[in-house]
Design brief:
- It is built from one helix and eight strands; from the N terminus they run E-H-E-E-E-E-E-E-E.
């Protein structure tokens, strides 16, 4: 979905759903279950730098929603999509960015409308853009 983005920051609202195709390496693709449901979106912002740069393409498996500490997920908080590292804690879900300028956040499931959209299992990014 070329017009759908997940924010590497505070959030991104989406309105369009144009489709483009990206070549995910066959070895990586074949490791996934539910291949027919995999899709790609782009990343906006800088909170996930230096790993994901603004404009990086993220491959998402929407069937992989179980949290494994330290994995990267596309999440929905209220009406915005975000891409973040997740960890579980006794206090809730910790949302982490790679960029240290962004502090960790804790989501208490009762206090916010929160969903895990899927696991990011591959990405493509340009350097020094």
């Amino acid at each position: 979905y070329s017009d759908i983005s997940a924010s590497a920051g505070c959030g991104f609202e989406n309105n369009n759903t144009n489709v483009e195709y990206y070549p995910i390496p066959e070895l990586v693709f074949n490791m996934q279950k539910n291949k027919q449901k995999i899709y790609c979106i782009s990343c906006v912002g800088n909170s996930m730098e230096p790993v994901f740069h603004h404009g990086s393409v993220l491959a998402v498996n929407p069937e992989e929603k179980n949290i494994y500490d330290g994995r990267i997920y596309v999440i929905r908080c209220n009406e915005v999509l975000r891409v973040k590292m997740l960890r579980q804690s006794p206090d809730g879900i910790i949302i982490k960015s790679y960029n240290n300028d962004y502090p960790d956040e804790i989501i208490h499931s009762k206090n916010i409308d929160f969903d895990i959209i899927g696991n990011v299992f591959w990405f493509s990014s340009t350097l020094n853009n």
